[in-house]
Amino acid sequence: MYYTSVNSQKPLPYFKSDDFGNGKGSLANFDFYCEPEYGENYAFELGFRINMTNSPSSGTSIFTRPKYNSTYTMFRVDMDGNLRMYTYEPNVDWGAWEVTYRLHDKDSNGKSECKLPRRCGSLGVCEDSQCVACPSPRGLIGWSKGCAPPKLPVCRGGSNVDYYKVEGVEHFTSDYNEGVEPIKISECKNRCNKDCKCVGFFYKQESSKCLVVPELGALVKVDNSSHVGYIKISK
Fold it and tell me: Which of 15, 24, 44, 123 lies 20 to 30 A from 168 at CA?
């Protein structure tokens, strides 16, 4: 799954399934299915059947098992970037549509909601699927919907910008794009200076990995304080 940023020609990845595919072949069929478990009507399986060409990795993935007839189910990617399944139960008077599955869900074994690009709007530190802080040049302050990246001046190769540091965070794309290595932090900063689309960079000190980003969004809180983010700001 990808997030489209106005500052980037390429979409930014924020979820990839490794259930099927071994890096070879291509997707032939991707079918959404609903059927009763063991031929009975006590529970219904909702999932996907995936067929790969030139790959032994085809198979079935079960996502959820509602305890009622789930024939009327749809799945969609909602405005927040989360994939959800909605099931319709015609035998109730109200609330007939129910969310039966969420890909990013803090209350299940799904992915953390902090991995959603806009979980905290245009900027925010996210921990346990909650927006816990707003990074600022003065440090971390309470998060609100008004938290936003600094307004940047006209791009001049870094001569009129600076950066402020946020410790113990990673970018929402870090699971799928760790950046380049090994380079010094000064070179990482210089890359962001030269890139007019860059709004900040992320650096892992133990591996010297540098990730220059065109979008901030959710900054995922991690235990390792040597994973740091630098947000570009006007001098």
Answer: 15
Q: Which DSSP string do the residues of 170-226 spell out, in sequence order? A: EETTTTT---B-S--HHHHHHHHHH-TT--EEEEETTTTEEEEES--EEEEE-S-TT
DSSP 17: -
What are the pLDDT digits (tens) for 8-25? 889 999 998 766 655 566
DSSP 147: -
Contact 55, 21 (CB under 8 A): yes
Q: 182: cis peptide before it, omega within 30°?
A: yes
CA 176 to the chain's CA centroid: 10
Q: Structure pTM?
A: 0.85
Buried b (16+ CB within 10 A) or exposed e, 120-151: bbbbbbbbebbbebbbeeeeeeebeeebebbe
DSSP state of 78: -
Q: Which two tokens stand for residue 152?
A: 């940047």
Which stretches of the chain drop beneath a pLDDT of 70? 18-25, 39-40, 55-56
User: Tokens standing for 116?
Assistant: 């959603």
Could you tell me which of 102, 15, 25, 82 has the C-alpha nearest to residue 59?
25
